[in-house]
Amino acid sequence: MNTLSPKETSLLGSAEPLAAVVTMVIWLREPFGVFQWGGLACILAMIFIMAWQKEDAEAQA
After folding, report:
1. 52-57 contacts at long range (C-beta below 8 A, 24 or more positions apart)
2. Distance (Å, whole) CA 6 – CA 4
3. Alpha carbon distance 9, 5 (integer Å)
4. Contact at 8 Å (CB) between 9 and 1?
5. CA-to-CA distance for 42 and 50, rounded, in angstroms?
């Protein structure tokens, strides 16, 4: 954990709900509805926004 920055740790932590959804759909055979797709899109968008901001901050330094 000493080699990961707080931002990288939060990016990895935000991927946990995605893993839970994939497990739910595959293992428990639960339906994947419209609200789940919306939540998935929001989580992915936030991960990409946070990663993009990190690249911009590193480019300016």
Report:
1. 54/7
2. 7
3. 6
4. yes
5. 12
Are the CB atoms for 14 and 22 separated by under 8 Å? Answer: no
Q: Residues near 30 by Cβ (< 8 Å), separated by ≥ 6?
A: 24
Q: For the segment 4-59, what is each residue's pLDDT rounded down to a tens digit?
A: 777 778 777 877 888 888 888 899 988 889 998 998 899 889 888 887 876 666 66
Taking the C-alpha atoms of residue 56 and residue 41, their distance in angstroms, rounded to an integer, is: 22
> What tokens were used for 21?
């959804």
Number of Cβ atoms within 10 Å of the Cβ of 48: 11
Cα angle 8, 55, 9 (rounded to 5 degrees) comes to 5
